[in-house]
Write a structure and sequence with these properties.
4 helices; mainly alpha
């Protein structure tokens, strides 16, 4: 799209490296940026902009939609939980906010909704 050679190979490499949390997104951009330097400064700006745009779209749109569907955790609850636990426990709270919210949700579903209320529909 922007004229950087070996775009398919760089895309596959980026897709594989994104599975490494936090660092993978940054490290996956390095080969593309290095190749863009060989073309022009404008290609570097386009490459950096494309990586930032794709990761923003993934992080703020795609991942919350997938998480909501897979875990039935509303995105607003996830963001609020990250904000609250991040404020109280710092980076550790931010990292463990979603898993803790999911554990609390399962506990509430099992102990309160199913046992106390007797609703076993799984809603």
């Amino acid at each position: 799209m922007i004229g950087v050679p070996a775009a398919l190979a760089l895309g596959v490499l980026s897709g594989l490296m994104i599975f490494v949390p936090y660092v993978g997104a940054i490290v996956s951009a390095v080969p593309s940026i290095v190749l863009a330097f060989a073309i022009s400064g404008q290609a570097v700006l386009y490459t950096v902009g494309l990586y930032i745009g794709i990761h923003i779209l993934e992080g703020y749109v795609l991942v919350p939609l997938v998480q909501r569907r897979a875990t039935h955790l509303p995105p607003a609850l996830g963001l609020a939980g990250q904000r609250i636990l991040g404020a109280f426990a710092g980076l550790i709270g931010l990292l463990f906010a979603i898993p803790l919210l999911l554990a609390i949700r399962v506990l509430l579903q099992t102990l309160y909704v199913e046992d106390v209320l007797g609703d076993r529909s799984g809603a």
